[in-house]
Write a structure and sequence with these properties.
Length: 167
């Protein structure tokens, strides 16, 4: 219950602060996320690989939250194999498209929209509050980006999100 309250407070605060968007090195963000998740990564024998990532204009705290939610979900929804997560970014005409790919249990296409709704935690039986991906969607929207998923059950999932170039 405490975690749900904390998650709801996090969700409700997104967009209500006057935090400025500043240049943020995404490698620094990922280092912080991996430090935060170190115990879970070690306990599950998770392998995280990261391609070259850009510096973007963003709210650094919210980027940490975004990547942390996506990576911790990949760990929580792992298949029988050790979790493998790959983070990358591709430059687009108007910014960056990031991806967080995993080898987890995957998601049915019929649930693609639902997973971003508040209190939706799927049917995995994890202790999820069902707010993490709703937080991700709200953070990406605050940054004028989009978030979506590509997945097949048993094949893993890739979460994509865009961040515009604000230079």
């Amino acid at each position: 219950m405490r975690q749900m309250i904390d998650d709801l407070l996090t969700y409700s605060r997104i967009g209500t602060t006057d935090a400025e968007f500043d240049p943020v090195d995404c490698h620094v963000v990922l280092d912080r996320v991996l430090d935060n998740l170190q115990i879970a990564i070690e306990e599950t024998n998770t392998e995280v690989t990261v391609d070259a990532l850009p510096t973007v204009t963003a709210d650094d705290q919210q980027l940490v939250q975004l990547f942390q939610n996506l990576i911790s979900n990949a760990i929580s929804y792992a298949s029988e194999e050790d979790p493998r997560i790959h983070v990358s970014a591709t430059e687009t005409d108007d910014g960056w498209r990031f991806s967080v790919a995993d080898n987890g249990i995957g998601i049915e296409e019929s649930q693609f929209e639902e997973v971003f709704e508040i209190f939706s935690s799927g049917s995995n039986g994890t202790e999820s509050t069902g707010i993490g991906l709703a937080i991700c969607e709200k953070i990406v929207a605050r940054h004028d980006g989009e978030i979506w998923i590509e997945s097949q059950p048993g094949e893993g999932s890739t979460f994509f999100f865009t961040l515009p170039d604000r230079h």
